[in-house]
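Troubleshooting log. The previous structure file for this entry was overwritten by mistake, so regenerating from the original sequence record. Sequence copied from the archived sheet and checked twice against the printout by T.R.
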Amino acid sequence: MSNRIVEFFTITINQPETDWRDVVTTQNCSYLAKKCVKTRKSAPEISIGTCTVEYGAKESQKVIICPHRLLERNQVFIDCIHLLTLHEPGNELHKISEVSVPGGSVDYVLASVRNGKVIDFVGIELQALDTTGTLWNERQSFLNSVGVENIEETAKAKPYGMNWKMTAKTILVRLHHKAETFELISKHLVLVLQDCLFGYMQREFQFNHVTNARLGDSIQFHVYSLKNLPNQLRLGLTKRKSTDAKGIATSLGLQASPKVELEEIISVLQAKISDKTLITL
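Regenerated output below.
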């Protein structure tokens, strides 16, 4: 089985002339524009920094294991602009993180704002693959291989794995809790995920009713792949699918009926918009 780190602190490991000592010292995530928030439980001052790994027994694939990796170039937000059906030229676009809604919270909201007022919005959930086991040994081995000194080697442990089933079920349950909320207020909720995870969900869950994307569906799936470019990987949208609240319930065999007022969510959004949330191109 081929298990190894592919992207470390947002940099591909084959990037030439990289000062890995500086990278591991600054612990910066370029997608968040701050220190990587994935830290070691036993040493929270140390960021783990693993974005993407190679995994597979026969044909290995590059698997995104950090949801922030999906923020590359703000592409996932640009790809949602068409869902802002009330957006007009001249409106500002804001990305707002961790917005509370009935049924939980959404990772991001893309909002169309005019004169400080939210005109329209779309919820966006980011989902990467969860892992089993630890990647710490892979991290340490990589740093030693690139000559970073004073990196302690730990005893060899069981190789990490991909928690396909739990990841897929968890995100579908999260969508289910919020789907009817967005449907009742005639807004869209988008799940952003990698193609390998979406493929697993199609195989293991009831997905026959999930169609090619329709603007009228409240739940949208935006599926991305990692494309090889010289010395880097580029995130690219490969397919769009959609369903509604009933469709998510069908996938899980569950039902829920969250109720919400549109004004409640808009009030939360307007309290969060600022110059820091403004998207500029």
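The longest strand covers residues 232-243. Archived copy saved in two places this time.
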